[in-house]
Amino acid sequence: MEQKKSRFSNWMRNSITARMLVVGFLLLVLLIPLEFVKSLINERAYRQEEVVREINQKWGNEVLLSGPIVKIPYKMISEEKIFNEKSNAYYTKTKETIENAYFFPDELNITSNVNTKPLNRSIYESVVYSAAIGVKGNFPTIDFSDTDIPEENILWEKATVLLKTTNLKGIKTTPVVNLASEALSMTPQYSTEYLNTIQSKYIANAKEIFAAPLPFSFDLKINGSESLKFLPIGKETDATMKSNWHSPSFDGNFLPEDTNKEISQEGFTATWRILQINRQFEQSFFGHLPDLSAFAFGTKLIIPVDEYQKSERTAKYGILVIGLTLLVFLLIQLVSRIYIHPFQYMMIGLALVMFYTLLISISEHSNFFKAYAVAAFSVIVLITIYSRAILKGFKFPLLICGSLVSLYGFIYVIIQLENYALLVGSIGLFLILAIIMFTSRRIDWNND
């Protein structure tokens, strides 16, 4: 029994196959704490989203705003035949319902000046803004002659102007629409729709003033976060947006004009010009005003550096870093014939996993580059000193140190790249494979 145990021990210590199996098994075991690290990154990222969402809700969420819309009620008369069982005959019942007609502007000009600032809670940060918006344009001549609605059924005395928006909480000044010589104060209307409604009082002499093209204007100050968008309801819609935010993401159904777009560290300026032919809806609706938010255009104000996203991308290369590092130790063991115990392999692997927890925790209080540098330096120094105790001398520990520096540097470069990440990663892995093949060619693989 002692002889069999001794033979097995010698096989484990001297057989290349046995050592490869041990390292492979340890690599699989180390996937467990690596998955826990990935779960921790997702948990912290979700917590960040939760805090940012709470900050935005208290300040003001995303803003989507339409231009003014004229709403004119009208009567719909319908007749219904009803059978009377007592008289055994049909009689006609007239039914009257009130419907609404909605008319959009011919010209819609929007100017917005967006001033952003960061809001912090604990270690988390959100970008919010205050926007000063000016809207002006012209309504067309409103004429029902092309419809089958009789003139006497049009309720001109109940005509109003309304606005559609997503963020009533963020409005800081009561919008007043200047229509001809009248200033119309706006009040909110109850609605469960995504776009809230703000509506004016009845327009005096609506039939007369809408008999010709009618100019309008209003100003609005509003707090918001995440994005600022507009609905292109004008037959011709022109919009200009200026901001001190340096990393805009132009979003929605239309992009700004390339010739007038400027982006710098001091902010951005963008202009849009959208014609009726560019979007798929008409200039008037009868009976129901549909949700047109799918046609919105504008800008997302985003934080360009997401530390958790970069940490998650780094952790995806964890199996590569751990596998290659253990492989380097295995090759050193095979070349030098220095015995490395499985426990020592496990300690090295756990040190490599600790890199990711250090990266997450430090990046929450600093930028990603500093966090990456500190975490990588700490792990490289720890493993280099530990390998000095295992491998004796300085030759192999310095090789380990150089390998880890190159590997962490290579991973950092890939993380920073976007368009060329796959190309650089593939070339890098090819070179690593070539080095391993060249290094291992002198090993006597017959010692099973």
UniProtKB/TrEMBL annotation:
Q: Does the keyword Membrane apply?
A: yes
What keywords tag this UniProt record? Membrane, Transmembrane, Transmembrane helix
The reply on keyword Hydrolase is no
Q: Which InterPro entries match?
A: Uncharacterised_IM_CreD
Q: Where is the chain membrane-spanning?
A: 317-336, 343-362, 368-386, 398-415, 421-439
UniProt xrefs under PANTHER family: INNER MEMBRANE PROTEIN CRED (PTHR30092)
**What is the name listed in the Swiss-Prot or TrEMBL entry for this protein?**
Cell envelope integrity protein CreD
Which taxonomic lineage does the organism of this UniProt entry have?
Bacteria, Pseudomonadati, Bacteroidota, Flavobacteriia, Flavobacteriales
